Amino acid sequence: EIHIKEPTEKEVNPRLLPGELLLCEANMVYKYIQEDGSNRGTYGKLVCTNFKIAFLDDDSASDDNEPQFKNKIIGENDITLQCVDQIYGVYDEKKKLLTGQLRKYPEKLIIYCKDLRVFHFCLRYTKEEEVKRIVSGIIHHSQTPKLLKRLFLFSYASAAPNNTEGRNQTVMFDTLEDWRDELERTKGNVKYKAVTINEGYRVSEKLPLYFVVPICVSEESILKYEGRGIPIWCWSCHNGAALLKMSAFPKEQDDSTSQTQKAFLDGIYKTISKAPYELLKTDDLSSSLPSLQDIQTAYTRFKQLFLIDNSTDFWATDVKWFSLLESTNWLEIIRRVLKKAIEVAECLERQHTNVLLIEESATDLCCVISTLVQVMMDSYSRTKAGFQSLIQKEWVVGGHGFLDRCNHLHKSDKEEAPVFLLLLNCVWQLVQQYPPAFEFTETYLTVLSDSLYVPIFSTFFFNSQHQKDTNTSGESLKTQSGPFRFLTVWDWSVQFDPKAQAFLNNPLYAEKPKPDKSQRKTTRFKHQRQLSLPLTATKSTTKRGFFREETDHFIKNILGKRISKFINSSDEPPNSFREFYDSWHSKPVDYHGLLLPRIDGPEIKVWAQRYLRWIPEAQLPGGGTIATAAKILDLMEEVQSLQVKMDEEHSQAISGDVCSVPLLRNSARLSSLFPFALLQRQSIKPALPTSTWKDLEDEDDLVKRDDEFVDLTGDMP
């Protein structure tokens, strides 16, 4: 039985951004609360604009119950057109993928999003004409190929002409000065030089305007093959060893061409292997790491585990969780990428060898490895401004094809691959293993991954600096003079107010210690839920976990035999790597020195906040890292008030630093997936005759048991 609210006199209209146009709408659309199995939900209006799909109900108009962590651009029921992954229609209880022109219109619409939200809309009570308009409108605007200039990015930039690219302490690397400063910061300016030869893009449209090469490389060499075969500098280590990257020559060529190119490469290698340069180690990433196709296939399988339609689906997959997780191969790819970054770090740090990463375009896996190596070796890259500058340097200006890899224009599925998401997953492993080493939080990384699909920022919507420059100078839609002024994603004030931005900063970031203070290794908080693939039953809790009994046999018989496969790849002798890895992990952690991720089997985990945040069954009310953070913030507040009493003079300076996450004290029962999951909703557990449910029946209360996993005081440093 469905209760229809009396129509309110107040018309609910969408809040439109500058340049945003309403394209189609449908009234009397019923949005299900899909997770509880009943047909509960709310009536409202479904609209499609040139920026987003939005559902508006009576609550959309009221400002009551404002969440603490609110995005100013995208509301809870908004989906940007770039964030739509797939659209399904339900016909007589059967799901069908919707594309192109439809002969028959569905009674239900299911929208799967790239940020893993799932929306269910019932269209039974909507007028037929409105159903046709809204369904065909949504499919057309979110799924069909479009021209670059049709992106909302351009409509917004021309309608909001006063936008300025707020620098926000982030180095943009679009000037020669920025590159020279970076060379000076890393002390690489003795052996490397910033070049201006690509001004006007006369060498190559794929290269940035300015870049850095070894001093001994001539301009003629750079021009000869449009920048291919030239070692381009990424970063210099404290000992002088440098990380370089190179675009490889195409493999299929006739003999004479490949002989000439080989001779050219030999000449380059000889030049940069002589003093004052260190020995050179080359690493062809296309043969030593998974292909982009493998990465795309693994991620496509992996994300299916989290695009849950309802509660029953969740509990059905839960029983097979480990085998499903392993079969995706996503965690194994993350582990291989991290292992490669450690190998490169070993060459730079211990062997004092230059490392040259080679890839066909040097704009995909080269970006991942060079970024990870810098995050692991350079503590500046672990600050917020440093990390943002690093993404600008290696990805945005470095020429990663965001437009093609994210398939923003729906031009070709073949080019699509979640390379930047792979990087964020790898960085998250480091953030959750060594929280005090990072000035930013996992919430920052989650929000950054969401920003990939927000087309008001230019950061992730071009393939190269050349493409951005040529499209910036175009005429705007209104006949105003001057180029488009795009926003940069690094100006977080566009999406969040100061209170929400506080969630992006880590209150426990270890500031650089004073020389006389000795470093102490702090205790690491263990993850509550088993989000990694276990290899052995190490340190197993006496409590019965969600998957304990189902998987014990599986772990012992299958995964146990694969320990060597998980830890060492077969293509090289592991001794030197293993010795470096074990030796580093046997010492106390210096949060401002080299950081090596733990990569043995169960240490590689699922990024729970990003992937489970919309699934209420996966929440631990009152548990998780947020419970720890809340406790720590209470202590910090107490310390702060004592400090104020002790020293009135410094009270202003301290109060400015400490209120990092507001209002947490009053939230005793926050969800473990806070700040994304704000409500604690009950989930209906299906009656499945498995031992897992029998275990759960033995417990008085699932919530109570989850609380017992979290010891808020025992692990406090």
UniProtKB/TrEMBL annotation:
The keyword tRNA processing does not apply. GO terms for cellular component: membrane; sarcomere; sarcoplasmic reticulum. Its main location: cytoplasm. It is found in: Cytoplasm, Myofibril, Sarcomere; Sarcoplasmic reticulum. Keywords: Cytoplasm, Sarcoplasmic reticulum. It comes from the Eukaryota. SUPFAM superfamilies: (Phosphotyrosine protein) phosphatases II (SSF52799), PH domain-like (SSF50729). Transmembrane segments: none annotated. Residues 173-611 form the Myotubularin phosphatase domain. GO terms for biological process: phosphatidylinositol dephosphorylation. The keyword Chloroplast does not apply. CDD domains: PTP-MTMR12 (cd14594). It holds the Pfam family 3-PAP. InterPro entries: MTMR12-like_C, MTMR12_PTP, Myotubularin, Myotubularin-like_Pase_dom, PH-like_dom_sf, Prot-tyrosine_phosphatase-like. Belongs to the protein-tyrosine phosphatase family. Non-receptor class myotubularin subfamily. This is Myotubularin-related protein 12. It comes from Uria aalge. The lineage of its organism: Eukaryota, Metazoa, Chordata, Craniata, Vertebrata.
